[in-house]
Structures are given as C-alpha cells and as structure tokens.
Specification:
The chain is of the alpha+beta class and 516 residues long. It is built from 15 helices and 23 strands. α4 crosses α9. It starts with 8 loop residues before the first strand and ends with a strand. 47% of the residues are buried.
C-alpha cells in the first residue's frame, strides 16, 4: 500500500512479511525483534523514534526510506519542503541535495571502469592522468587510483573547498592540489577531502569519453530507474516537488536559501563529491543495489568483487561507543558489535543526509533533511541498529551519533598577534595580493571603509577592524559567513602580505602583495 505525502508506505501483506522474517532467520540471531517475527514493529519503532527526534523549528522537513533486500518496505515524508508556509509537504518524491553520499556514486562509476579493464585500483594515477600532481613529488608518483577516494592523502581536511565558492572551476581546483602542503604523511591518517574526487571524475571522463554527469546517468541512474534524480540545478528548480535548503544562523533561526543564491555553484563544481539531488524513493533503489551485491532487477551493474573492493576498509577513522570506524571509498565501515555496516553522511550548505547499509541483515536506510548540521540522519542510522537488536535507542543527539565525518564548520582559533607589532594605518592596506591557489585578493579603501574582493566571481564584502591589523570579512549574500584577515608589514612599514585563516590549506592562507 502506498499513500502520498505524510502517509506511511509499508508493504505488510502476510506472505511478504513471512518471507522477510524467514530471510532474517538465516543470519546470526542478534536481531531480537526480527527473531520474534516482528519486523513491522521495527519499522513502527523507527518511525516513532524519528518523530520524537524531530524538531520542525530546526528541520522543516525530511524523508526516509527503509529497504529490505530488493524491496522498499517503508517510505515517508515529514513536514514541509522549506520553512516558508506555502512550500508544501515533503513526500517520497521530494528532491533533496544529498551531499557527500554522492561519493559512493563516484566510486561506483569508477568501479564500472575497473570492471571494463580500463583501469585498476592499484594503478598509478599518473599513468592515466599526466597532469596529476600533489605537493610532494614522491606522493605524486606513488598515488594510486584507490587513493583518490580513500581519504588518506595527507592533505588537511576539506582542502580547497572554498575555491569553488570564489568561482573557480574543476580544472582550477585539480591544478591547485599541487599547492596543498600535507599535514600528515601519505596513507598514515584519515583526512577527509572533496577535491580528489574531481581527479577521480577526470579519470572517469578520460576512460568513458563522457562527461562525468552523463557517465553517472548512463551507468548508474538509468539502470536503477532513478529517473527523478539530477545533477542539473535548473532541472531541480523546475521540479515543483523540491526542497529549499536553510542556513542555521547564530541565534539558531533558519534562513531560507533562495534559488538564485550565488554560492549554489558549489554543487555543480563539486558534483562528483557531493552534487547529486535525489529523493527517498530513488535512493531506495541505490540502497537495493548495495544489498544486491552490485545487481539490481536482474542486471549486474557492478561485479561483486568490485563492490567489495569499494567498501573494503582502507584507513582508520576513529573508535567510538559503537566500535571502530574505517574509511573505504565513498563509504565508512563500522565494526559495531551488533553487526558490521557501511554508512556515509552528506552535507551541503543547506541540507543533510545519510545512507546506511547493514549487509548481514539485508537491510538499508536513507534519510534526507533540509537543514545542515542536524543529527536526525545519524540518530536514525544508529537508532535502527539499536531497535533491530531489541535495545532502546539513545535520545537524539547522543555520543553514538557524532563524528562519522569531521565538522567542516569547526571554528579556527586565530593566532595571537605579537605585542611588538605596530598597527598599520588602513590607508596603507589597499592593493592586490595573490595566493597560488585562491588567486587575487584586492583590498580597496573607499572613504573610511575598506572592502575585499575575492576570486573570479568577485565576492566583495566589507572589512571590519577586530584588533590591531586583524579584520573581519563579511561574505556577501551569506548571513553569518565571515573570514578573518591579518595584514603584515616589513621593517620599513610597507605591507607585504595578508593572511586569510580560512584559506590556510595553501601557504598558510598567505596572499603576497603584488605590484598591481
């Protein structure tokens, strides 16, 4: 039975439930609820937990689906497509930005290239992409195809992400990886990246002769019947059943992101790392592919051994209350005592999601929400783990739900200025400064005011004095988004550089003054 909108979709025919229960009895019986033959109760308990965990003032709307084997056994939408009263209800077909859960699609498409024998996971990237270059020449030479998505490059987390917000394209970001100085040795530590997925997409384009988006469409979306999913912002906006994202302001209120927001280009530029837009019904098919060991509807999309390689743990992440986390390629492997499982969350500037797969239980979950930073997706993934084993899920949020991926919004502490540094008169700050990755930073003095212009997109905003030689930059059209700048002069008093702390992944954020 399937009903639209806020109604629950469950397939509870007696024969279907009996088959599902029997299938569960074939796996080790750590699943007390299923062992009682009561999988429908699991779905009801998960729904209750979702509703209890949900605050509509913080998350206007969300949707989730549960998959058992090849069947979507539950799907429902909750709340509204935005905080605007006229936005309409969320249902199973409402489109969301799924963020970094897209990375598993990138890995899968690259897996089809491996299946065709056009590349191998152990190949050196430079054997396929001669322009590939990292900071260290040895790392450049030894970097393998699997390293592009294994999050163990040695670069600082989220390196070069801000380039796209300044208007740089994929080719610019790929070129800039050579300027990112590592903070750990190669393959020694987990360091989450988006930029290296752009190199993986370049390899896919090289081997398929298709744009990356077309390769994903032909090789994954179309075979799965994910007809409503898209990488095209115009198609997303044209679909009347889509969510608007929200920014969480400092006071906890939400700001609705308008369709013409100038920073939406991140989704297009970084599409291979986080740009797919989808809905609960379509994503359930993707989960079914995972549970089907690479097959869906009788069609083999990925060889089982290729899917196994994609989900094989490659670098240690963390140890938490529910076991050890290790990153694979587009997935995080969780060695929980209840059952091993795979998960990846996704976050754009306006939305947050998760996909979780529990292979031993033949079970999967997708949760999509329309605000960033909320913990409903993580709570439900861990909550399902608890409910299936007869345990009471923690109140959301809890320690178990934290830390699947590092917080890219973590505040950076500004280095203190030495007392001996003399204050630089604002009139001497005007000029052009340059960074090898982030391009030009242009400071202008207009009357008593200072402005900063950044990037090809010319992001122009005011500079406000915070302390001696330290200023705050307010990003235009982005409530609450600020960066911190520090100017430095030489012994003669001439200004030589400015440093933007949020760009510290390249040259410590230094922009050297030029003669322009």
């Amino acid at each position: 039975m399937r009903r639209q909108g806020a109604s629950r979709t469950t397939r509870t025919a007696a024969a279907g439930i009996s088959v599902a229960v029997c299938a569960f009895l074939l796996v080790p019986l750590r699943i007390s609820a299923q062992a009682r033959g009561d999988f429908d109760r699991v779905l009801q308990d998960l729904e209750s937990y979702a509703i209890e965990s949900w605050d509509p003032a913080k998350v206007p709307g969300f949707a989730y689906a549960v998959v058992k084997g090849s069947e979507m056994v539950y799907v429902r939408g909750f709340g509204q497509r935005s905080q605007e009263p006229s936005s309409g209800p969320v249902d199973e077909h409402t489109l969301f930005e799924i963020g970094s859960t897209t990375k598993a699609f990138n890995a899968a498409v690259l897996g089809t290239v491996v299946d065709e024998g056009k590349a191998a996971w152990s190949d050196r990237v430079r054997d396929h992409l001669r322009d590939f270059k990292m900071y260290d020449p040895w790392v450049t030479k030894e970097f393998r195809v699997e390293d592009l998505m294994a999050q163990r490059s040695g670069m600082p987390p989220y390196a070069l992400d801000l380039m796209s917000l300044l208007g740089f394209g994929r080719a610019d970001i790929r070129r800039a990886t050579r300027f990112v100085e590592p903070v750990t040795s190669f393959r020694s530590a987990f360091g989450y990246q988006n930029c290296l997925h752009l190199w993986a997409s370049e390899l896919i384009e090289e081997k398929t002769g298709l744009t990356w988006e077309e390769a994903v469409r032909r090789r994954i979306l179309e075979p799965l019947g994910m007809a409503e999913s898209t990488f095209d912002p115009a198609a997303y906006d044209a679909n009347p059943n889509h969510c608007l994202g929200h920014l969480v302001l400092e006071d906890g209120s939400l700001w609705t992101i308008p369709p013409d927001w100038p920073y939406r280009g991140w989704l297009t530029t970084y599409a291979p790392a986080g740009g797919l837009c989808s809905n609960a019904a379509d994503m359930a098919k993707w989960v079914a592919l995972q549970l089907g060991n690479g097959a869906y509807g009788g069609q083999v999309i990925l060889r089982p051994e290729t899917l196994q390689a994609i989900r094989a743990p490659r670098i240690y992440q963390a140890t938490g209350p529910t076991g050890v986390s290790s990153y694979a390629m587009g997935w995080s492997f969780q060695s929980s005592p209840q059952t091993p499982w795979y998960v990846h969350d996704g976050e754009t500037e306006g939305m947050h999601s998760i996909v979780a797969v529990y292979p031993e239980w033949d079970l999967g979950l997708v949760v999509l929400t329309n605000t960033p930073g909320n913990k409903i997706p993580e709570c439900m993934a861990f909550g399902l783990l608890a409910i299936c084993t007869g345990a009471e899920p923690h109140a959301c949020p809890s320690q178990a739900e934290d830390g699947l991926l590092p917080d890219r919004r973590a505040a950076r502490a500004a280095a203190p200025l030495p007392e001996s540094v003399a204050a630089i008169p604002p009139g001497k700050l005007s000029g052009t400064y340059k960074n090898p990755a982030y391009g030009k930073a242009i400071v202008r003095k207009n009357g008593a005011a200072l402005t900063l212009t950044l990037g090809p997109a010319r992001r122009v905003g005011p500079l406000t004095l915070l302390a001696k030689n330290r200023y705050r930059f307010d990003w235009p059209d982005w409530p609450g988004m600020v960066s911190t700048l520090t100017f430095k002069a030489d012994a003669t008093g001439e200004v030589t550089k400015l440093t933007i702390e949020e760009f510290s992944d390249v040259d410590g954020g230094a922009f050297q003054r030029t003669g322009d």
